[in-house]
Amino acid sequence: MDQSSSQLNYTDYSAAFYTYDILLGISAITILLMPLGVHLPADNIMRDLLRIVRLPPVLLFIFFLFVLGNFWGFIESFLFLYLKELGASNYLLGITVTVGSLSSIPFLYGAGKIMQRFGHVNIIIIAFFSHAARLMGYSFIE
């Protein structure tokens, strides 16, 4: 972005939008080519869903996922504003996303094994501490 906008008086994000459009098209084609199996729906999906959602452990699980989602949304919404306020370049902003995305790939592939080993509740506790450590780390940046 910085390199393509060096002669302009503003940041030109068109390359990012074109890249996104191309990758979105590739994703759409991939989804269209996926084989779909036909499954018969359950008799009363809503009744079964309500019965499950009324369980206290499920309600707590959903609540904590909601809180973690808010933490994640807060970080994703305000991190770039905070870094820009500190004088970070667009290159650094891109690197933060790249490092975060690349470091999460091994966890996505090993999520089943990690979940079996530690359990859902412990993973949520680890996620809370990870978000706390991440926010604390951002507070030390000057």
TrEMBL record:
Major facilitator superfamily associated domain sequence ranges: 10-141
GO cellular component terms given for this protein: membrane
TM ranges: 15-38, 58-82, 88-109, 121-141
Pfam families: MFS_1_like
Keyword annotations of the record: Membrane, Transmembrane, Transmembrane helix
Bilayer topology annotation: Multi-pass membrane protein
Domain of life of the native organism: Eukaryota
Principal location: membrane
Family annotation (InterPro entries): MFS_assoc_dom (IPR024989), MFS_MFSD6 (IPR051717), MFS_trans_sf (IPR036259)
Subcellular location: Membrane
Protein family membership: Belongs to the major facilitator superfamily. MFSD6 family.
Name of the protein in its database record: Major facilitator superfamily associated domain-containing protein
